[in-house]
Design a protein that fits this description.
The protein contains 21 helices and 27 strands. A hairpin with a 7-residue loop joins strand 5 and strand 6 (127-134). The chain is globular and about 85 Å long. It has 674 residues and is an alpha/beta fold. The model has no long low-confidence stretch (mean pLDDT 90). The longest helix is centred in the last third of the chain and has 21 residues, at 491-511. The chain starts with a strand and ends in an 18-residue tail after the last helix. GO terms for molecular function: carbohydrate derivative binding; glutamine-fructose-6-phosphate transaminase (isomerizing) activity. Residues 350-490, 521-664 form the SIS domain.
């Protein structure tokens, strides 16, 4: 949810204006994650030190900017303050370390005092940006208050810089000095919860320290000599231990560093990354050991282009990503379908274990849960293995039974969803084989599962997931094909699905032509307060996901319902005013959906029926209902086709109602807190 970004230039002159723009643009790249306030810290000038001789350090004091609202409010505040202090924006810095943050409120309302960086107090001796939640902050706060610290914010984060100052002062009062990494290690020793942190301090000028436990944090590296790519398999410390001009970045998200470098390393849990004199040191923190071990880490190459994080010719990221689906589905299948055979290298070594499972458990949240639900019927049909569904948070609340004979499949676009990761830890403790399905290479989910498949949907910026959803379904259908490939009884069905997969991008391209029709439908629904969607069988998930999309971005109450449950309550809502979408494309449930349509007509329901091309006269012989005709494909792939008109409907409803389609209120792209 929160976003972290930091930039350190070493041995290369960068003007203050340039540094500010790099930090601010980094925050803009993190906007899509969701936020309600933002902030940053850079160095000021030594002249300010001379004005206050009581400062406990003799280096340039940091300037901290914090603002509620959008990043452009922060931009205005920053440049206004710079003008007020008459700081030279063209002043070059050969070395400089800056930190920045977008905040999604958890402890304390959105306000400048609760924004990050949070400070140790007067003189800003320690500054921290934080993603996550500190669960024992109240105990730490009480302890620090007893030692004379006063708190200005309502956040859990503020205990961290104050604890750092407490540790620093205590060490300084003793014999000898204390290093920045020693301070941070002692702070980590006291913290409980999930976090990614970056520390900046005028006591340690031009240094940055990052550490993490549970939340994602990445290190980006750009050697300006242009030789980095030749040495990717060298240890990061060895690679950076020179005086060559370089730029280093910390970020919560690869999207924020791709325009600067494609060379990065994922920071692991309980690691401390210290940048000093242009060199990177990685230490492994251990509660039981006083001295940390040094860690070797090679750089990885980011397979992402800058164009993926730009809107191009589209007005919004959501519309761009909806229209990218023919390409994203092609990429998701590339190299995995050969001569009628599905090959998933990430599962190959564990395939025998999966086939012998007593059951498969799909675990996810929100859209990812719906994608798994859409894939469940074909997984059961092709594998003859029982498949159960679990919402990650509910599974944890119930402490659901998981056995070592189970295969647990965790589905998450970001790979960082807090509830899903906690459910993963629970499943690992119970001995289940854990499989990850994620869009994010190097994510926590990808690293902690035994095996898995990347969906390769490309960077998705819009908060409401679109192309990731359809790629998740395709990947799980391919998983079902691969797991069930040893069964002769399903050969014909498997061949039909594989043939359908090869034609799927073309069919998706065709259904996108309904864009104008969905805009017209949205216009007719613009003033409605509620919307119902009925689906069953393969398309129950489509009803849930379509309703979720409308809920998320158009801020309209909408409910996806199992059509078989219509007579058990929902039928009472039906009248001539409430719009109801019924998904009735051709599959095993088609005749039952025809019956549902007839019953709704009998009660004067206001129907919008989605059907297969050419079926309008079958589903609505009297022409009383609005009809959406979509291409027909093999049943397990039909949810991919059917969801696209619902995505377009949600998009147009949102735009017509005047809401922010890419950043809906109160929502975050990556839900990294419970």
């Amino acid at each position: 949810m929160c976003g972290i970004f930091a930039y350190l230039n070493y041995n290369v002159g960068r003007e203050r204006r340039y540094i500010l723009e790099v930090l601010l643009n980094g925050l803009r790249r993190l906007e899509y994650r969701g936020y309600d306030s933002s902030g940053m810290a850079i160095d000021s000038d030594m002249s300010l030190v001379m004005q206050d001789k009581n400062r406990p350090y003799d280096t340039a004091p940091p300037m901290v900017f914090r603002q509620e609202g959008k990043i452009e409010s922060l931009v205005t505040s920053v440049y206004s303050e710079v003008d007020k202090l008459d700081l030279d924006l063209e002043k070059p810095f050969l070395v400089h370390a800056g930190i920045a943050h977008t905040r999604w409120a958890t402890h304390g309302v959105p306000a400048p005092r609760n924004s990050h960086p949070q400070s140790s107090g007067e003189f800003d001796e320690f500054l921290v940006v934080h993603n996550g939640i500190i669960t024992n902050y109240e105990v730490l706060k009480q302890t620090l208050v007893r030692h004379g610290f006063t708190f200005e914010s309502d956040t859990d984060t503020e205990v961290i810089p104050k604890l750092a100052k407490f540790v620093f002062d205590k060490a300084r009062d003793g014999e000898g000095g204390v290093t920045f990494s020693q301070v941070v290690m002692e702070v980590m020793r006291q913290l409980e919860g999930a976090y990614a942190l970056i520390f900046k301090s005028p006591h340690y000028p031009n240094e940055l320290i990052a550490c993490k436990r549970g939340s994602t944090l990445l290190l980006g590296f750009n050697e300006l000599g242009g030789e980095t790519s030749r040495h990717l398999f060298h240890d990061v410390k060895a690679l950076t231990a020179n005086d060559k001009p370089k730029e280093l970045f910390f970020s919560s998200d690869l999207c924020a560093i791709v325009e600067h470098t494609k060379n990065y390393a994922a920071i692991e849990d309980d690691e401390i990354v210290h940048i000093k004199d242009g060199s990177v040191s990685i230490l492994k923190f251990d509660y039981e050991k006083e001295k940390p071990a040094s860690v070797q880490r090679a750089l990885s190459v980011l397979e992402m282009e800058v164009e993926q994080i730009k809107k191009g010719d589209f007005d919004h990221f959501m519309k761009k990503e909806i229209h990218e689906q023919p390409d994203s589905l092609t990429t998701s299948m590339r190299g995995r379908l050969k001569d009628g055979v599905v090959g998933l290298g990430g599962l190959k070594d564990h395939m025998r274990t999966i086939r012998r499972s007593r059951r498969i458990i799909f675990i996810g949240c929100g859209t990812s849960y719906h994608a798994a639900l859409a894939a469940r019927p074909i997984m059961e049909e092709l594998t003859d293995i029982p498949v159960t569904m679990e919402i990650a948070s509910d599974m944890l609340d119930r402490k659901a039974l998981i056995f070592k004979e189970d295969t647990a499949v965790f589905v998450s676009q970001s790979g960082e969803t807090a509830d899903t990761l906690l459910a993963l830890e629970y499943a690992l403790q119970n001995g289940a084989l854990c499989v990850g399905v994620t869009n994010t290479v190097g994510s926590t989910l990808a690293r902690k599962t035994h095996c898995g498949v990347h969906i390769n949907a490309g960077c998705e910026i819009g908060v409401a997931s679109t192309k990731a959803y359809t790629c998740q379904i395709v990947v799980m259908v391919m998983m079902a094909l691969a797991i069930g490939s040893d069964k002769m009884s399903t050969v014909t069905k498997r061949e039909a699905i594989i043939a359908g997969l090869t034609k799927l991008p073309e069919k998706v391209h065709d259904v996108l032509k309904l864009d104008g029709e969905m805009k017209a439908l949205a216009q007719s629904l613009i003033d409605e307060q509620s919307l119902l969607m009925f689906g069953r069988g393969n398309n129950y998930a489509t009803a849930l996901e379509g309703a979720l999309k409308v809920k998320e971005v158009a801020l309209m109450h909408s409910e996806g319902m199992l059509a078989g449950e219509m007579k058990h309550g929902p039928l009472a809502l039906v009248d001539e005013y409430l719009p109801i979408i019924v998904i009735a494309t051709r599959d095993d449930s088609f005749s039952k959906q025809q019956s549902v349509i007839q019953q709704l007509h009998a009660r004067k329901g206001r129907l919008i029926v989605m059907c297969s091309e050419g079926d309008a006269s079958f589903v609505c012989p009297d022409g009383r209902s609005r009809v959406i005709e979509v291409p027909q494909v093999v049943d397990c792939l039909q949810p991919i086709i059917n969801i696209i008109p619902m995505q377009l409907l949600a998009y147009h409803l949102t735009v017509l109602r005047g809401y922010n389609v890419d950043q809906p209120r109160n929502l975050a792209k990556s839900v990294t807190t419970q």
